[in-house]
Amino acid sequence: MFGFFLKKNFADGWDNLFFLILMNVFSILVVALGFLSFKYLAAINLWAVQLGLIVFGGIFMTVNFAQGACAFRLANFDSPSFGTFFRAFTYVWKIGFAFGCALTFAIFAIRMGIIYYIGLGSVLGLILVAFIGWFALISVMALQWFIPLYFLQEQNGFVKCLKKSFIIFFDNPWFSVGCFLYNILLLALSCITFLLAPGFAGLVLSTTNALRLRLKKYDWLEEMDEKEPGFSSNRDKRYNVPWEDLIKEDKETLGPRKLSSFIFPWR
User: What 3-state class would DSSP assign to 172?
Assistant: First the structure.
């Protein structure tokens, strides 16, 4: 399944590269305006800078959520549009801004905790620093599913997205780690292209594609529970997922995309 995810995500990104670049321009503009504003906030005091960073985090994640609306359409083999992108702001700004502010505040809290416990200069302090570090790493890998969950399961609000993000991580740890490492690779590639491609929009597309495929597992478990009550509670049966059958339709829809077809699409 992971191999098909990589293939589909590359195909979606390549086929809509120009669209992703234009969406990334909005993210870059937000980042640029953020840096300019910090220059003036620094002249006031440190508290103004920290408050500005929290607000910036909220605005930045709102843009990411709007990109998530387009990523949702791409993941479902649909065509994205700027109309979808701009309309998304009307309904994602609350959860996007709240998530961004909460995430930035959490980063501040983790940073302060690490500095404080290192300053203790004791073994207990180092143990607590290690605990905070692992907590932060697990949280990052879990929260990569937050935006996709909002669109793939429309009934999810802030709390449900937060809760389900960790549930998915702990139920699919290696898959989450694999997607996280893949996104780090995409981020490194984005730095080479000055965040134009795949960029932040590409990262949102990646996690949306990955989670959309992974959620097929839970649809399958629900079906099996109806046929055989308690099926999902059996560890041996639960993890014996027939991925080939679950993604068969997606494979047929994507088609046999060879490397040459990306370079020479007219062939």
Answer: coil
Q: Are 53 and 226 in contact (CB under 8 A)?
A: no
DSSP string for 93-131: HHHHHHHHHHHHHHHHHHHHHHHHHHHT-SHHHHHHHHH
Q: Number of H helices and number of E strands within the chain?
A: 14, 0
Say what the pLDDT of residue 121 is.
86
Identify the CA nearest to 207 among candidates 14, 86, 64.
64
The token pair at 244 is 């080939």
DSSP state of 229: T
pLDDT at position 264: 44
Query: Tokens for 260?
Result: 């040459």
* Of the candidates 118, 101, 15, 24, the residue with the CA atom closest to the CA atom of residue 66: 24
Mean pLDDT, the chain cut into blocks of 10 residues (267 residues total): 94 94 96 87 81 94 97 95 95 97 96 94 93 97 98 90 97 97 97 95 98 96 89 83 94 78 49
Per-residue pLDDT at 236? 77
Place of tokens 């702990």: 170
The answer to whether 80 touches 205, Cβ cutoff 8 Å, is no
Q: Packing angle between helix 2-15 and helix 199-214, nearest 10 degrees?
A: 140
What are the DSSP calls for 187-255, one per residue?
HHHHHHTTT-SSHHHHHHHHHHHHHHHHTHHHHHHHHHHHHSTTGGG-HHHHT---HHHHTHHHHHHH-
What are 36's two structure tokens? 């300019």
